[in-house]
Amino acid sequence: MSDQNELKSMGLKATYPRLKILDIFRKGDTRHMSAEDVYRALMAENVEIGLATVYRVLTQFEQAGLLTRSQFDSGKAVFELNEGDHHDHLVCTNCGRVEEFYDAEIERRQHNVAKEHNFVLTGHAMALYGICPQCAGSRQKGGTTLG
Fold first, then answer.
1. Do 146 and 139 meet the contact criterion of CB atoms below 8 Å apart?
2. How far is CA 1 from CA 5, 9, 19, 128, 142, in A?
3. How far apart are CA 4 and CA 28, in angstroms?
4. What's the pTM?
5. What is the pLDDT of residues 39-77, one digit of tens each?
6. Across the strands, what pairs with 56?
7. Residues 69, 71: Cα–Cα separation, whole Å
8. d(Cα 10, Cα 116) in Å, to the nearest integer?
9. Which of 9-18, 22-31, 113-122, 137-146 has the lowest mean pLDDT?
10. What is the distance between the terminal CA atoms of the chain, rounded to a whole angstrom?
11. Per the count of CB atoms within 10 A, which of 34, 41, 53, 122 is most buried?
């Protein structure tokens, strides 16, 4: 399905800003992007779409189910394409890098914990915080060891 048809099927007009922002997510190397990240990517392509428009479109895409919003400890909302698969996140507290992962054992344990407490689990979001390999390597090179 083309991006234009996909937007129309979600009740959104296929405007130039919407198409460009969707294109940024589809083509980007970075999967989790803040509104500012999207704005910078648009500026790098010499596309003049204002930051307020970026925020508005991201909210519309989230409401339509096209994007998923996450808010990690930094307090900044990041968005990713909603591809229908469940995953959790590893977040670097140094550089902000976000990695996705899925672990069947963790998923099983969460369901068991909910059941043990008589909860009907309807969803969850998990983020693990630490230092990514790149930041850990640069810390060790600088004479600081982790431990």
1. yes
2. 6, 10, 14, 35, 49
3. 19
4. 0.73
5. 999 999 999 999 999 999 999 999 998 999 988 876 778
6. none
7. 7
8. 39
9. 137-146
10. 49
11. 41
SS3 sequence of the chain: CCHHHHHHHCCCCCCHHHHHHHHHHHHCCCCCECHHHHHHHHHHCCCCCCHHHHHHHHHHHHHHCCEEEEECCCCCEEEEECCCCCCEEEEECCCCCEEEECCHHHHHHHHHHHHHCCCCCCCCCCEEEECCHHHHHHHHHCCCCCC
What the block records as the tokens of 27 is: 């083509």
Q: Give me the count of residues in the chain.
A: 147
Give the residue among 106, 36, 49 at the shortest CA–CA distance from 77: 36
What pLDDT score was predicted for residue 97?
84
Question: Which residue is listed with tokens 């990695």?
Answer: 99
Q: List pLDDT tens digits, range 116-137.
A: 999 998 888 888 999 999 999 8
